[in-house]
Design brief:
Helix content is about 45%, strand content about 20%. It is built from 13 helices and 14 strands.
Amino acid sequence: MTASKIPIKKLCEHCNQEFTAWKTTTKYCSHQCNSRAYKALKREARVRKTERTQQEKRVSDLVDKPYLTIAEAGRLLGISRDTIYRYIKSGQLRAYQLSSQRSIVKCEDIEQMLGERPYQKRQPRDTAAISELYTTEEASVVLGVARATLFAIAKRERFPRTYNRGKSYSSKQHIDAYRAKTAPDATITEWCTAEEVAERFAMTLTAVYSFAFGHNIPKKKVKGRSYYSTKHVEKAKGVLDSTAPSYYTIQEAMEKYGLTRDQLYHYTKQYNIPKVKQGRNMLISQRELDEVLRPPTIIR
């Protein structure tokens, strides 16, 4: 790199003295600092090499010892003391306790432990031929989804698939198992669409989707269209049973009584106010919370 005509103020990486450099790559203020830094780098490399040699020598000396401490056994195997203790506790390695603070192991026991656990190459799982298959059209009808949705489900769930003579086939067993897992509750007989819920309760479609997700409303999909359980929607809206107990959400109770979340939970814990979890929301008994937080009165 050619020298610059602009002086650059830098710090020497060896003596930490400020100097004027004419190149951005200059690291040292003088040839003397450059030489000393080079010698220090070589000295550190020799020290590291010596330490590695001594470590290898120490490990080779341990092989000839009939008894080893826990730390020496760890150095011999290249593992930590905690791992040695774990082997001892599980019964894989036998140890001998000389005192309350000193335990030893035999090299013979270490060799025996290693001999009982030789390396075994992991064998591939036995694969069974899948003969019962669905075509793409049949699988779409079984799951009640479109072709694009079927391909997305097959990729996510890793259905075994094959391609033969211009047609795609999927495993019947895996598709039936996925259908059974995602099938709605058989006891639910009444379903309604999001549009019907929005019209009945004067909600937007976005609010309906958020409401169904927040209250964990059971739903099913038929040909790409979502249907929600009418019974669960009415129950979440409080119109299913007029005699059922009413509840506050956490946000409603905080706004009504001007409390923080921590204060509200403090009162519910101190006075044992019943709470129920509905979907992803925590509900608090309205009657008992009103009774605890009602305004004070003086009786004369």
